[in-house]
Amino acid sequence: MNSKFITFSSPLANPHYEGVFDVVPQELKNKLNDVKLIDVRQPDEYTGELGHIPNSELMVLDTLPDKLATIPKDKTVVFICRSGGRSARAAAFALMNGFQSVFNLQGGMLLWNELQLPTNKK
């Protein structure tokens, strides 16, 4: 496995998508600078009341097929959405397209905010 990939001690098998693993927010918080964060919500959600994780990139789920080539395949990618559903779908899509190290943020921005982890709201 490539040394640029990050390992998580807490990945949980996603109940809806085979091969997709969820990572808990607390562990992701400690590795924010080591992963590529892709938020697949709508722009108004990204800047809305839940905010977004610092350094995350907005890439609306519907545009993912067109933008997939802009995501580095040699780095661990964590997909984010409101509750974890759309981001799990994005992770499954990335896996089907040759990505090796992708994760879904468990509970999405709802859980991230509930745990009072850092967000940008702009």
Feature tags:
5 helices; six-stranded mixed sheet; single chain; 122 residues; Oxidized Rhodanese, domain 1
Calculate the mean pLDDT score and round it.
95
Q: Which class do the helix and strand fractions yield?
A: alpha/beta
* CATH superfamily placement: Rhodanese-like domain
Strand content: 15-25%
Order of helices and strands: EEHEHEHEHEH
Q: Report the CATH C-level class.
A: Alpha Beta
**Global shape:** globular
Describe this structure in words.
The N and C termini lie far apart (37 Å). The protein has helices at residues 25-29, 43-46, 64-67, 85-96, 108-114, and strands at residues 12-13, 21-23, 36-39, 57-58, 77-80, 102-105. It is built from five helices and six strands. Strands 1-2-6-5-3-4 form a six-stranded mixed beta sheet. It is globular and about 35 Å long. The chain has a single domain (12-114), classed as Oxidized Rhodanese, domain 1, CATH 3.40.250. The protein is an alpha/beta fold and 122 residues long.
Per-chain topology:
Layout: E1 12-13, E2 21-23, H1 25-29, E3 36-39, H2 43-46, E4 57-58, H3 64-67, E5 77-80, H4 85-96, E6 102-105, H5 108-114
Parallel strand pairs: 2-6, 3-4, 3-5, 5-6
Antiparallel strand pairs: 1-2
Question: Quick gist of this model?
Answer:
The chain is an alpha/beta fold and 122 residues long. Helix content is 26%, strand content 16%.
